[in-house]
Amino acid sequence: MTMRQLYLVGLVLWVHLGDLATAWFYDGGTHPEAAVLRLVRDATVIAVAAWCLASARMARSLFLPLAAYGALAVLAMLQSLADGRAVGLVTGSFGTLMIPILFFLVGYHCLRGYRELGALVRLYAVIACASAAFGLWDIQHSEFWIDTLHFDIFTERVKGVLLGAHPLTGLPWSFYRDAEMTRRAAGLLAAPLAQGMFLVIASLLVLSAPRGMLRGLRLVVAAFLTLGIWMAGTRGAMLAGTLALIGYLATVRAIIADPRLRLGLMLAVGAGATFATRDLVTMTWTMSDGSSPGHWRSLLLNLEGLFRIPPLGYGPGAQGAIAVQTQQSVVGGGEGAIFTMAYQLGLPAAAAFLCFYAVCLGRLWHAHRDHCADFALASFWLMLGMIVTLVTSEHILSVSGSAALWLMVGGQMRALSRSPAPQMAHLQAGGAEAVA
Known about the structure:
By secondary structure, the chain is mostly helical. It is built from 20 helices and no strands. The two termini are 30 Å apart.
């Protein structure tokens, strides 16, 4: 295994198990040096992404919107610093806004072909199954997070979450479904919101794996991960996952060739998802829970001020989670990744990101349609499903919640750009294996 591959394995483990391991090591402040681990991880991601830009060739259609977004983000950051905003607030917010680009570039550099993409999916499957299994236990044992892990202290001192914690337990409100303190499963990711989205990503990629992978356990693994998604109780992940799965079943032929059977399966999936989430849907529709009214108000505020945003935005730190935690006054409604980009970096930067997103979608569809590339169709529908979260949450600006998908998409873009003839022949063989 090369250093590049070792780093990728270490990074994936670090991303999805890092908070749990760091909180254990931190031990309520006994080992304060644990706080440095997150900074080391981020530094390695920045270094590898920079090396990718300096050394790898990239299709112009991908590079131009990516470079435009990055350049506008840097200009907005410089403007924000010139305005006297705190350096830590600006750089932290800037880093959050760059998460999709950074992990895309890391995937583009580290993944070099079909075999490595398949190995990454197997790693995702192992982590996801372990996390879902742990979630079944942790949802019944809140004392583990409070008394054993001292997660409340870790969240406040290391992650900097000063607001949004339950006043009695100190755990983030995201650990609970409602005011009655009904627990959500946090899993090995130590975050229910990230847990739900990661399990969605892993489950659909597992379903799209060739028959030779995972020893025929694809459906069993996907069903178990679906249970884990429901235990995490993340509405954004449930909606994105349902849309992605229905879209995937509508267009895939490797699993079920008969379109009538595919239609029946799509209807069954839709009915099952509706039944399983009926209480959540009712609470959301009637706004009888604690979060839905806040989401709606945020959306209205974001739309109200959208076209008054300066060309370079109000600067990193003017909106977003870090600004809220530092108790800064924020502009707009404060939720929705695309609004976060627009308010902090400007509408041109948000448009550049959407263009980059659209190019990735187009190239993934091309890889599936013309080359039968495994995982391309699943990644296509996952990206489409996550579009619904762009205006309601910041999932795609979360490391643990979206890094898995950005790494995968980056790797597939690299596979399409390297040695087209032999590479596509290999992908074609992989697709033929899936259909056989």
